[in-house]
Design brief:
The chain is of the alpha/beta class. Helices cover 36% and strands 19% of the residues. It contains eight helices and ten strands.
């Protein structure tokens, strides 16, 4: 099997590590995700992962209840480091060398994020797990994923979702007329507010013409299919015209 891309960035939500638990990390789910990443890594694809922290802490939710927004966001950044360490443990148990790099300094558990060093790690065959978002409050991990994808010069940003198998014209939970896009442009996704990702992140990717693949990672092998194209998955966001299923 041959990969379509040589370097990718995988965006995982913190909820991806929850499984059926109400919060926190399910080690079995972390192991399953690690095995999927290993499949891609075995194809000589350089992999970076940006991971969220919503399974442990949501800064925006806390700030809406009266907590200082900057403090709440910094707590969310720390939560992403916990998730990154859990994924690192699962990957290394699967035999994949990794490095956790953070946007806020935590020398005892991770390296500081340095762009050139991250690229060198990937060139040496290590999976790089990027935690703590951008290191700044008021920015989402979607924005961090967009920024890191451009900095690391990846070929595509893979947006792995838990329950959604792509982008729809309307919310399929409430409309029987909803149709899934096979392809949609960055511009149309912004104009129609299709909830691909944070609007600022999407605009950044549009300006730099970086494609995004939004897909459901719950099916085993979905990440490999996204990278190889062996089976069609999700919705591709590119500069091209929209195509509905």
């Amino acid at each position: 099997m041959t990969a379509k891309y040589s370097r990718v960035l995988l965006k995982l939500s913190g909820e991806a590590l929850m499984g059926e638990t109400p919060f926190g990390i399910d080690p079995g789910v972390a192991t399953s995700i690690a095995q999927q990443i290993k499949q891609v890594h075995a194809l000589d694809v350089q992999v970076a992962v940006v991971i969220g922290g919503g399974n442990i802490w949501r800064g925006l939710s806390a700030s809406s209840k009266g907590m200082d927004r900057a403090t709440a966001d910094y707590m969310g950044m720390v939560a992403t480091v916990l998730n990154a360490m859990a994924l690192q443990d699962a990957l290394e148990k699967a035999g994949v060398q990794t490095r956790v790099m953070t946007a806020i300094q935590m020398h005892e558990v991770a390296e500081p994020y340095i762009r050139r060093r991250a690229i060198r790690h990937m060139e040496k065959g290590r999976v790089v797990i990027l935690a703590a978002g951008t290191g700044n409050p008021y920015f989402t991990t979607d924005t961090a994923a967009a920024l890191r994808a451009l900095e690391l010069q990846v070929d595509i940003l893979l947006m792995a979702k838990n329950r959604v198998d792509g982008i729809y014209s309307e919310d399929p939970r409430f409309s029987s007329d909803a149709r899934r896009y096979v392809q949609v442009s960055h511009q149309e996704a912004i104009e129609r507010d299709l909830k691909v990702m944070d609007a600022a992140a999407l605009a950044l990717l549009r300006e730099n013409n970086l494609p995004i693949l939004v897909f459901n990672m719950s099916a085993y092998g979905a990440i490999e299919n996204a990278v190889t194209g062996a089976a069609p998955v999700g919705t591709m966001v590119t500069s091209g015209a929209a195509v509905l299923e």
